[in-house]
């Protein structure tokens, strides 16, 4: 019979074990593994995983939450008032983790639609709190008007996800584009995202 870890550190380690297995299952193809596959990768009974997460979508949303915090933390650490293109850091830090943008692109359309409302709300609240803290610092460092930092960061995130989805179509579509004249008309994601975010932030200063 599956048993929950008894102490705080044991619970945290078990939870990390599950999330690490979920990440390992997601990275090769960007597919959401089943709870059974995640449990197998983690070396746990399927029932043990259900002691920590109710569904696979809840597992992957928790994984995304950790990745969002890691992305924003790395970005914040590199902020400098004399940096002419601070938004490049948002793109570069996002690309450091190959699973981050593919997973983030599934949040609204797939993960949140298959969750209990309180779980999805908790994710949104954690995201809003982290963005709020970062927005205050961005306003201070770069001279944005108070209250403009939060919508700026929300739009930056949304722009990154939208551009990622545009530049990373399904494999079958990608194969067709490779033989089509449209393929040569599209910038790569990193170039497009850096330019778009620079314009977005420049507009917020005006």
Describe the fold and architecture:
- By secondary structure, this protein is mostly helical.
- The chain contains eleven helices and no strands.
- It has helices at residues 8-26, 35-42, 46-50, 56-77, 87-95, 100-104, 107-111, 117-142, 149-167, 171-178, 189-205.
- The longest helix is centred in the middle third of the chain and has 26 residues, at 117-142.
Produce a short descriptive summary.
By secondary structure, the protein is mainly alpha-helical.
What's the tally of helices?
Answer: 11
Low-confidence stretches: none
C-alpha geometry: globular
* Percentage of residues assigned to helices: 55-70%
Strand-residue fraction?
under 5%
Sheet of most strands:
none
Count the strands? 0
> What's the mean pLDDT score?
90
End-to-end C-alpha gap? 62 Å
Spell out the helices and strands N to C: HHHHHHHHHHH
Q: Write down the Rg.
A: 19 Å
Structural class: mainly alpha
What are the key terms here?
206 residues; mainly alpha; 11 helices; 69% helix; 0% strand; globular
Break the fold down into its secondary structure elements and pairings.
Elements (H helix, E strand, L loop, with lengths): L7 H19 L8 H8 L3 H5 L5 H22 L9 H9 L4 H5 L2 H5 L5 H26 L6 H19 L3 H8 L10 H17 L1
Helix pairs in contact: 1-2, 1-4, 4-5, 4-8, 5-11, 8-9, 9-11
